[in-house]
Amino acid sequence: MKTLLKISSLFLLVLFFNSLASAQTAAEMVVVSTISSALDPSISLPQGSSFVSNPKYALQFAALLPDAAKYSNFQLYIAKGLATRLSDAFIAQLRTNFATTGYFETSNSSNVVGTETRIRIEFKNDDNGKTLLLFVVKRPDGVYFLVAQKK
Are 118 and 42 in contact (CB under 8 A)? Predict the structure, then answer.
C-alpha cells in the first residue's frame, strides 16, 4: 500500500510539473515568434527562450560589447531554468536558422569572463547587405541572447 501511495504521489508530482512546463513553453513560443520579426521575419529564435521587452535591460548587455555603437535594434532573449541546459543547442539552432534565411557566419569568437562565457557571432546576408549580431552570455542564472542589426 505504501508503495502504491508513493507511486501515485510521484505520478501526480510529475503531472503537475509537466503541465507547468508545457504552459510556460507554449507562452514563450508565442512571445518569441511574434517579437522576432522585428529584425528579419524569416529568422526564428529559440523556443524556450523569453523576449525581454525592457530596452534598458537589452542595452545593459549591449554595453558588454566594445563596438556596441555600430549596432542598433537590440533585442534580448533569456533562457532560464531547465532551458539553460540547452544553450548549445539554442546556439546551433540559431546558426541554422540564420543560414537558412541567407545570413551566413562571417566571424565568431568566444571568451570567458569570471563566471560567464561570452559568444559573439556575426552573420551577413549578401542579398540584402544586412549584418546581424548574435551575442550570447552564459551566466549561472540563465543564458542571454542579444540580437542586433549593424547600422
Answer: no
Asked if residue 69 lies in contact with residue 137, where contact means CB atoms within 8 angstroms, the answer is no
User: Considering Cα of 15, then 91, then 145, then 147, what sign does the dihedral take?
Assistant: negative
Q: With cut-offs at 50, 70 and 90, classify the pLDDT of residue 71.
A: very high
Cα pseudo-dihedral 86, 88, 91, 96, rounded to 10: -100
The helix/strand count (H/E) of the chain reads as 3, 6
pTM exceeds cut of 0.85: no
Phi, psi of 97 (to 5 degrees): -60, -40
What does the pLDDT look like over 129-151, one tens digit per residue?
A: 999 999 999 999 888 999 999 99
Where in the sequence is the domain holding 61, given as residue range(s)?
Answer: 2-150
Query: What is residue 127's DSSP assignment?
Result: T
8 A C-beta contact, residue 145 and residue 94: yes
**Number of folded domains in the chain?**
1
- Under a CB-based contact definition with an 8 Å cutoff, are residues 51 and 77 in contact? yes
CA distance 47 to 72: 23
Specify whether the CB–CB gap between 105 and 121 falls below 8 A. yes
